[in-house]
Automatic annotation (TrEMBL):
Keywords per UniProt: Amino-acid transport, ATP-binding, Nucleotide-binding, Transport
Domain ABC transporter residues, every copy: 4-249
CDD domains named in the record: ABC_Mj1267_LivG_branched
The organism of origin for this protein: Haloarcula rubra
Pfam families cross-referenced by the UniProt entry: ABC_tran (PF00005), BCA_ABC_TP_C (PF12399)
InterPro entries according to UniProt: AAA+_ATPase, ABC_AA/LPS_Transport, ABC_transporter-like_ATP-bd, BCA_ABC_TP_C, P-loop_NTPase
Entry protein name: Probable branched-chain amino acid transport ATP-binding protein LivG
GO molecular function: ATP binding; ATP hydrolysis activity
Transmembrane segments: none
């Protein structure tokens, strides 16, 4: 089953074409990384897919239905979840409450925060939240205040929040940004374990090519808004067009 498909996806800003007729598909259980040099259009593409930007042309299908015209929160409720470059958590709530909020939002849509006072009325939501915290290694810290976690665990919580929505596809934008080498290694292992355990479908944007080659089933390379190569890590690494695109350049 194809989870995400874009057809001729294009975004123009005045005379600049940031994303230029991009065709991409991601199948269920597939881990795909989107890479490219500075200004390639990666962030614009992600913002189009998550409905934070309106395309100039083209279509986006999620679970084989067009999502054009939907608001970002509606796309989330259809099963697309995203983790950001910086940890997006509720710092004054507990680790468990952060996960419960995500599970509640996915299960019930809009809700008031006082639902947390009655979270025992939602045993399934609490179960999902606690299972996610177990999977990301934070169950033992579930009662800790989120702001008191170290940076690496805040990022793990942020991934846990995204997973608590039980997504059909997870978008990860620089999940290891700002981490120490030890935290990075731990997070990469976490992503690999979660992918295997949950048959997770993901789209990853990441600067660290070692990480990209380690965890990706397939890599899509953008340059100047266009797809210039795609394939397995080995195929992409040996592609002359990719080497030319990166030669003397810095990644976005």
């Amino acid at each position: 089953m194809t989870v995400l498909q874009t057809d001729g996806l294009t975004k123009r800003f005045g005379g600049l074409t940031a994303v230029d007729e991009v065709d991409m598909s991601i199948d269920k259980g597939e881990g795909v990384s989107l890479i490219g040099p500075n200004g390639a259009g990666k962030s614009t593409f992600i913002n189009l897919v998550t409905r934070r930007l309106e395309p100039s042309e083209g279509d986006i299908q999620f679970n084989e239905q067009s999502i054009l015209g939907l608001d970002p929160h509606e796309v989330v409720q259809r099963g697309m979840s995203k983790s950001f470059q910086t940890a997006s958590i509720f710092p004054d709530l507990s680790v468990e409450e952060n996960a419960i909020i995500a599970a509640l939002a996915a299960e019930h849509g809009s809700f008031r925060f006082n639902f947390l006072r009655h979270r025992n009325a939602y045993p399934e939501v609490t179960r999902v939240a606690d299972e996610v915290l177990e999977s990301v290694g934070l169950y033992e810290q579930r009662n800790a205040t989120a702001k008191n976690l170290d940076y690496g665990n805040k990022r793990r919580l942020e991934i846990g929040i995204a997973l608590a929505a039980e997504p059909d596809m997870l978008l990860m934008d620089e999940p290891t940004a700002g981490m120490s080498p030890e935290e990075t290694e731990s997070t990469v292992e976490l992503i690999k374990e979660v992918k295997e355990e949950l048959d997770l479908t993901f789209l990853l944007v990441e600067h660290d090519m070692e990480i990209v080659f380690d965890i990706s089933d397939r890599i899509v390379v953008l340059n100047r808004g266009q797809v210039i190569a795609q394939g397995t890590p080995a195929e992409v690494q040996d592609d002359p067009a990719v080497q030319d695109a990166y030669l003397g350049g810095a990644e976005e």
